[in-house]
Design goal:
Oligomer: single chain
Number of helices: 4
Shape: globular
Distance between the termini: 7 Å
Helix content: 10-25%
Structural class: alpha+beta
Strand content: 35-45%
Strand order of the largest sheet: 4-3-5-2-1-15-14
Largest sheet: 7 strands, mixed
Radius of gyration: 17 Å
Order of helices and strands: EHEHEEEEEEEEHEHEEEE
Length: 252
């Protein structure tokens, strides 16, 4: 699999922290600057009021020149009243999820739904000394079978729970669903865990290293490009003018 650039980016609904709305030109310029052949996006809005009702996956696909893309919602509704998505929602229905975009044809798509932690679970947020109870959200992964320039490549994009150890359970469930997939394979996305845990739980090799969060002064890497059956250059983090995450990019 030669001459293919992969990237992943948690886009924060196309916004920057503390700002309202989406600057479409800035968002598309940021996507274009990555020059990715295959791009995974997380925190993607479609028909949400906070992002002007835009289809952010379609805007990103237009910017990078993708010939194929798929948006898969994890949640339906508005941020203050989410519900689990089914994947059959009409385009005008407000949804939120992940997307995979490719400059190469995608011959097969699959969605893997990952359940949330049951009920309300303890979570120690930043600045809190005592854990408080939160309700987790359902998650999803999108799998694309990419017809690359010289071989097939299965690429997976996901965004896992921020609750530990539930995100580890989601990742193990996802890897079980991917067990029969041929190699080479790439797993991408915001896994909400560090590199050692991600590599140990998946059994995949790290393709890119670099702190990704928070974007303005990153101290941790919670976004990942992991692979099997691939040769790659050393991937790296990229600071873009949007979002609270840095992107990760690698050249195969």
């Amino acid at each position: 699999m030669a001459g293919v650039r992969l990237a992943t980016w948690n886009i924060l609904s196309g916004r920057s922290p503390g700002t309202a709305g989406v600057d479409v030109e800035a968002f598309q310029d940021a996507v274009r600057s990555l020059d990715a052949d295959v791009l995974a996006l997380q925190e993607v809005d479609r028909a949400q009021q906070r992002s002007h009702g835009l289809d952010l996956a379609a805007l990103a696909a237009e910017a990078m020149g993708a010939v194929d893309h798929r948006f898969v919602p994890a949640l339906v509704g508005h941020p203050d009243r989410w519900g689990p998505a089914t994947g059959f929602e009409a385009p005008h229905v407000p949804t939120y999820g992940v997307s995979l975009l490719s400059r190469f044809p995608v011959t097969r798509w699959e969605a893997v739904r990952l359940p949330p932690a049951p009920g309300r679970v303890p979570h120690r947020a930043s600045g809190r000394l005592v854990p408080h109870l939160v309700r987790d959200e359902p998650r999803v992964a999108v799998v694309g079978q990419v017809a690359g320039p010289d071989a097939r490549l299965d690429v997976v994009a996901t965004h896992l729970s921020f609750l530990r150890p539930w995100n580890a359970r989601q990742l193990l469930r996802l890897m079980t669903a991917l067990r029969s997939r041929a190699r080479p394979l790439v797993l991408t996305g915001d896994l909400n865990m560090g590199p050692r845990a991600a590599a140990r739980l998946t059994g995949l090799s790290t393709l890119a290293t670099g702190a990704t969060y928070p974007a303005h002064a990153p101290v941790v890497q919670i976004d990942h490009l992991l692979g099997a059956g691939l040769w790659s250059a050393a991937g790296h983090a990229v600071h873009l003018p949007l979002s609270d995450h840095r992107a990760l990019v690698v050249d195969l």
